[in-house]
Amino acid sequence: MPSTAAFTVGGTFLSAAEKAALEETAAAVATSGKGITACDEGPATIGGRFEAVGVANSEETRRLYRQMLFEAPECEKYLSAAILDPETLYQRSDSGKLFPEVLSEKGIVPGIKPHLKIYTLPGTNGDTVMQGLDSLAVRCKEYYQAGARFAKWRSPLVIKMEKGCPTDLAIKANMQDLARYALICQSEGLMPIVEPDISLSGSHTLEEAIDVNIRVQSELFKAMIDHGVYMAGSTLKPNIVNPGKDCPISYTVEEIAAANIFVFEQSFPVAMKGCNYLSGGQTLEQGAARLSAINKANTKGPWNLSFSWSQALQLPLLQLCEGKGELQLEEMSKLYVEELKIASAAAKGEYEWAEGDGDHAGSEEAAKKRKLEAVA
What we know:
By secondary structure, this protein is of the alpha/beta class. 45% of the residues lie in helices and 13% in strands.
């Protein structure tokens, strides 16, 4: 049987060898039981987390911290990839090796975050788009030469039912941007991870979240195909479909899992090898319970469903430093590997969660807030 790399949809700018390389990277990221450690926070963002626990923010502190995340003993058993900030891409370990080389030697694919800053779309009640496409091709070429083999672009959206958000304009603009980003990445040899990030904030129900997520994802995949993106050489990084944090209605983790599978079954291309869920403000326990339940519920889809977590993994590590004035690297390394074991089990549907973990608990206070919003 001939390889599907011989066929194309839309653009024909990639050679068979280039398609094969992109697909190889996508397959490596989608290794069963492994996921992505998202270490792409900029200096200010990670610095804020350091300062919150009394650790001074400096380039050296950031380097030591990322080195711990990349060199923790046996972390490669649970990690397929790591997303780096541009600063980290050019930093070196204590051994003198650049971090992309350190990761590659452990079988962890190094990637990069190339998007820049958020811009608010006028007239949309606060909807946003991400900036950075103009200079993307040049930067992707540099990142590939520095050792990166994939990129990740985040397009954040917020559900505000009372304000009509996300608007159709915001969905179309963001998904077109993601498709154009993916096309540019592939032209420079980087496997694109597309991240439509719908926030957990709000009071929307699970049913409303399902509707919005289907609209967003179907728009994304249509835009990617229209742009001629090679779908088998790309990866999805979505939010877990959840009710808003202030939703007054309670849902079990099994109901949330079923919602996620339903969304995927509507439009997620089987050409794509998998998705790596973002944590989006969920704790490790919440994220692991929901990811494990989603994998248990996935009886039809061929995709590898795993994790690409930052805060869920990192915030507990930083709590070990509170009141001590410096990074507790040895303790952090041990806890990090234990967290990765939990995430890996969830990615295989083997994590057994405690009762209530992963459920959404509605409240009377949230119900009152939703009624007030409806009146307003």
